[in-house]
Design brief:
3 domains, 179 residues, mainly alpha
Length: 179
């Protein structure tokens, strides 16, 4: 993949107060002469480049609105935990620590660990399991109401005894299908 350099100019100023005018480092906001070669600047630039690539990929994948936020949050939590586990395995295999004393994998692992914790705490605070149970119960109640309304419809011309039998069969079947 080519490293396309966007037309981003260095945000620093010369001693005269004029803008630098040089191109910023790829993913950075300043040029090499104004600190773009510093380790922390390079790391932040690499993060920006990775985020831009991910955003571009998300656009290509057609990311749209979330129709079921509860399920999406639970899926996100699962992804965060899997990512944390993968990074933990990478950290466990480290033999060489980076020049700054901290391996990039360790930094990524700690960041992923914090994000996973935040997501899981949010899920716990929202009491999502109870909400999902209430949603399922509401859906079952709507289904039962609809089935019973159909059974009592004049178009079927069922007798009261047939409706009563059908009601008890529906109730029995719902208990079998239920949790």
């Amino acid at each position: 993949m080519s490293t396309h350099r966007p037309a981003v100019r260095c945000s620093a100023r010369r001693t005269t107060g004029e803008p630098c005018g040089a191109y910023a480092m790829v993913g950075g906001t300043v040029c090499h002469a104004h600190g773009g070669a510093a380790g922390q600047v390079k790391r932040k630039a690499a993060v920006r480049v990775a985020e831009a690539k991910a955003a571009s990929l998300a656009d290509l994948m057609g990311a749209g609105p979330v129709s079921d936020p509860l399920t999406a949050l639970l899926d996100l939590a699962g992804q965060a935990v899997v990512l944390t586990d993968a990074l933990r395995a990478m950290v466990a295999r480290l033999e060489d620590v980076g020049t700054d004393g901290v391996a990039p994998e360790l930094s990524a692992y700690l960041g992923a660990l914090g994000r996973a914790e935040s997501i899981l705490v949010a899920i716990a605070r929202l009491d999502l399991d109870a909400r999902l149970v209430r949603i399922s119960e509401a859906e079952a109640a709507m289904l039962a109401t609809m089935v019973l309304a159909v059974l009592e419809a004049d178009e079927l011309a069922l007798t009261e005894a047939q409706v009563a039998t059908a009601r008890s069969l529906v109730a029995a079947r719902l208990r079998v299908v239920g949790p």
